[in-house]
Amino acid sequence: LPIFVTPFLPYLRQDRKDAPRVPITARLLADLIESNHIVKGLITIDMHAEQEQGFFSIPVDNLTGVKVFSEHVRAKYGENLADVVMLAPDFGGAVRNRRMAKALSDQVDVPVCIVEKRRTGPNQAEILSIIGESIVGKTVLIYEDMVCSGGTGIGVVEKVLAMGAASACIYATHGIFSRNAESRFKEKSISVASTDSIPRSQEYYAENPWLTK
Q1: The model's pTM
Q2: Which of 106, 128, 201, 211 is most exposed, with the fewest beta carbons within 10 Å of its own?
Q3: Is-catalytic flag, 117?
Q4: Residues with Cβ < 8 Å from 101, sequence gap 6 or more?
């Protein structure tokens, strides 16, 4: 059967009505994919929210970047992860970060904290607090499904460093990097690890040493 394989599905953040007359574009995307009546299944990676699979009437395999990223963490920090804390950038990302913590927890219990934030506009958020145990002196890993403008991720990293974290970096399955995000990550010297679900040239990686894949 014809299977549509697309590592990155756009528009999935627009999955609910949070204001009058706001379109649910994620559902429209599902309708467009199914409208040709040829595709009988979908394979993608780290949808913004797992319940978005319900927008489709065809079978959906929503893969995860946990295995790839957990191997990257072990290669970077070794097996001694006693000082590592997973930090969900919002309540919706808690499950994703718990899965990463579980994948890292063969020998040590990696705790998960959650950022409480308030959306102030498109790609803008105000960080209110961090829920969970102390991050003082810890290595904080932030696992996102995607990074767009980078505003939230940069704000979270700056917040945890100001609170006493030893270091912080971002793991993102989909690196979109819109609105000149590259210059902001470079200026702030914030490390990001991403898959190549959105392909980029070797020249791009050479020009942006803060990004690894």
Answers
A1: 0.90
A2: 201
A3: yes
A4: 86, 110, 111, 112
